[in-house]
Design a protein that fits this description.
By secondary structure, this protein is an alpha/beta fold. The protein is 40% helix and 15% strand. Strands 4-10-9-8-7-5-6 form a 7-stranded mixed sheet, sandwiched between helices. It has a 4-stranded antiparallel sheet with strand order 11-12-15-14. Strand 1 and strand 2 form a beta hairpin. The chain is globular.
Length: 430
Amino acid sequence: MRTDSGIGPSEGLKNVRYEIRGRLARRAHELERQGYEIVSLNIGNPRAFGLRTPETMRLAMIENLAEAEGYCHQKGIFPAREAVVMQQQERGISGVTAEEVFIGNGVSELIDLTLRALLNEDDEVLVPSPDYPLWTAAVTLNRGRAVHYACRPENGFVPDPAELAALVTSRTRAIVIINPNNPTGAVYPRAVLEAIARLAEERRLVVFADEIYDQMTYDAAQFVPMATLVHDTLCATLSGLSKVYRACGYRVGWAVFSGRTQLAADYLQALELLASLRLCSNVTAQWAVQTALGGHQSVRELVSPGGRLYESRAAILTAVQRSRFLTLTPPQGSMYAFVGVNPMVLPEFDDQQFALDLLEQKHVLVAPGVSFNVPYRNHFRITNLPDAATLREVFGRIEELLAGYAARVHELSARERVVRNLTGAISRIK
């Protein structure tokens, strides 16, 4: 859109937000250019904290460089797609072949493509709140309307299937499930997933199962693949190399379609058309998929007692437990914690102002909770990718900042009491 003052953005971006890499992240880059050391906990980027991609994956790409110089099939190279099929079969998901697998430039691209192939104007998609904000943004960009279903803190951030069912209308086309969840770390119980699966089947809704953190679970948490429960409607399982295999920069994800695929032939052809328009995804990195899925799953050591992610999570839990101000539903999966601030202690707390103050004063970058499409303003998300010592230092800085907030609240309360006493005394004299 062109305006009198210059060239403006498309009106289609009016309601699109992605604050995880927004204003706060830009300010953090400015501070770094000025020489400050910023602890960036706003995104889950394993390489930034020294977590490397398994060497076998790097070698697989090097050995196949000669095979990666040209375009490949729009759905991806066959060895990569076949490896995804084998993983699905090992999980008890039948009826999937390489034809039902689409490789993309990360799950991010596939979220956009799968929604673009599905939605008409004003179609509705049920999206969790809090959500990974790309889902809401992609629905909006593709002319749909994101209808958020609550995953409340008091319920351990697990959705209520009955509440979700009440949101379904004649315009609803799909349900998004993010499990293990980003940003909360919730891992949904089988009974909840089964209830959502039955709802989707009854109302003929497409299920988008974002399972990028599928092997990142802690203690006794059990991850249940959604595709094992959805049989009588279409299920799209989205995952990739970015998180479990610490390969964010490779930009390799996949979407696997299962369930009633025979009823979705036209939709899948439309998706293949969109995949063709972008020619293909990164060929070099696709050669790492077979090795990744078929090789040693080193993530298991990371999320077990003594492992890096497990111990970092433990440091977060301990820091919150000791805090005067913080609350937390212990994350059961993923690489994040969605930390709350007790409104009884800091009733005027604002997550965006807190995130800005923490960055400017303590040089720590976090993502305010409002970034994840929630109606409340007393949460923030951090990643547990740093080592435990770094996280203990970070929470020390957070506690100092919140203590400063509390001191100002106490000071203002004291002033208010003085004013009230003076007012009362004057009234009595009169």
